[in-house]
Amino acid sequence: MNSISSKRIKNHPFKMSPIVAGVILSLGVIVSGCQDPKAVTAKSVTAAESTTNTEQVVAVNYAALAQEIAKKYIITDGHIDVPYRLEDEFENVADHTEHGDFDFPRAVAGGLDAPFMSIYIPARLEKTGGSKALADKLITLVEDIVKAAPDKFALAHSTSDVKNNFAKGIISLPMGMENGSPIEGDLANLKHFYDRGIRYITLTHSKANHISDSSYDEARPAGGLTDFGKTLVAEMNNIGVMVDVSHISDDAFYDVMAVTKVPVIASHSSARHFTPGFERNMSDDMIKLLAKNGGVIQINFGSSFISQKAIEYGKLRKKAIKAFVTANNLEKNSVEIQVFKDEYKVNNPYPYSTLDEVIAHFDHVIKLVGIDYVGIGSDYDGVGDSLPTNLKDVASYPNLIEGFLKRGYSEQDIAKILSGNVMRVWQAAEVYAAQH
Question: Fewer Cβ atoms within 10 Å of its own Cβ: the N or the C terminal residue of the chain?
Fold first, then answer.
């Protein structure tokens, strides 16, 4: 077990009660084929009752082990949209918050240790200007969170920082930039944002920019990466900023793979195998090439990334809203439209994905390329009210771990998913940059 400071134990209370200890001991006896001495006198118990009791023992044991694993290992999450959420409506995330998916108490409950704070930049700023200014403002916001609660949060500019903060029982707040628009065509800005703590850049977002085409944008002016984008990827390698291929078009992904000298990440993407035609997720061929390069795909929890059913629901809802607006000649953002949206959801309940469906994406990647190339990229605070059952906020990571345990994943495999794989890629970026 990793060494855990007394402070971390205080922040992450886990006491092995006699009942839980007994349950774990009982499970060990059952698995080994031996009888529990205390159970020998229970000859009058029926076979059905015995089976039921055994199932209950197994269920309780998985939950207990999941909690222990969540506290034993570093848990990273590649993409949490806290900064932009707080820019829109500020709350003190050092305490319990009324809104959102992330705050300190819930992070502690879930065992979360290194959530990458997403410095999200809306695509519209590529044309209107202001990308760099907003990025700097959001980075300062993250720094202010740390300054206001240094006993709870710390910045993390390296893998060593994450490990050191973990040993102290403090949650790391590494940062990644979602949308490379703030680079504004100037490589000096790459150095500027590296110095401010940015450790990955998602090259674009929902629209093509001066770096890359977007998977969401029908316009593909560059046919992949722009010439500047190719230069930027090489310089990101040299300086130690991970390249994030989430959001970019398929052609841009293959351009990245042709240029990069180090492993890359998909900070919050899922498997296209389950959502055919949804380019925002990664195809099997892309996942194979990502793995061949040593990279990691971090699974997005949003239901529309997980199931085709949720995607189809979204299409039908959008069509219904458009028809309602047209029929009633309404202005954008009118009260009537919001009322219609609310009523639509009541009459047509959203098909939330399940925990099992999320784990199926992990399973698919692992069966395809192995355990070393997958991680967590929940997109908490970024996908609105579309999160799966049992994965509603950052307190939910033990539920995910329990699901892995029930599917037969070893503790060592789970540790790789929780942080080992991403830390390996991040460290590879650090080593390459040190040499160049």
Answer: N
DSSP classification of residue 296? E
User: Nearest to residue 182, comparing CAs of 163, 202, 165?
Assistant: 202
The tokens describing 29, both together, are: 């006896």
Domain of residue 18 covers 1-72
Kindly state the tokens that stand for 238: 């040299």
Note the pLDDT of residue 332.
84
CA dist 192 and 184 (Å) reads 12
Domain count, the chain: 2
DSSP classification of residue 154 = E
Residues 24 and 53 in one domain: yes
The token pair that represents 172 in the structure block: 């790391």
Model confidence pLDDT, tens digit, residues 369-381: 999 999 999 999 9
- Residue 56 confidence class, pLDDT cut points 50, 70, 90: low
At 61 the pLDDT is 87
Q: What angle do CA 14, 19, 21 make, to 5 degrees?
A: 65
Residue 139 CA to residue 130 CA, distance in Å, equals 14
CB 404 within 8 A of CB 358: no
Which helix H or strand E contains 323, and what residues bound it?
Answer: helix 308-328
The answer for residues whose C-beta is within 8 angstroms of residue 390's C-beta and 6 or more apart is 354, 355, 396, 399
Q: What single-letter amino acid sits at 360?
A: A
Q: Tell me: do 23 and 151 sit in the same domain.
A: no
Distance separating alpha carbons of residues 385 and 395, to the nearest angstrom: 16
Closest CA to 93 of 78, 84, 104: 104
Phi-psi region of 33 (alpha: psi -120 to 50; beta: other; left: phi over 0): left
What is the mean pLDDT of the segment spanning 271-292? 98
In a domain? residue 335: no
- From the list 264, 295, 302, 263, the residue with the least C-alpha distance to 281 is 302
Paired tokens of 161: 């920082």
Instruction: State whether 88 and 64 are in the same domain.
Output: no
pLDDT band at 44 (very low <50, low <70, confident <90, very high): very low
Task: Pick left, alpha or beta for residue 85 (phi over 0 → left; psi -120 to 50 → alpha; otherwise beta).
Answer: alpha
User: φ, ψ for residue 392 (rounded to 5)?
Assistant: -80, -20
CB 269, CB 298: distance < 8 Å? yes
Best CA proximity match to 14, nearest among 111, 154, 120 = 111
Task: Compute, in degrees rounded to 10, the torsion defined by CA atoms 98, 104, 109, 114.
Answer: 130
Average pLDDT value for residue range 192-201: 98
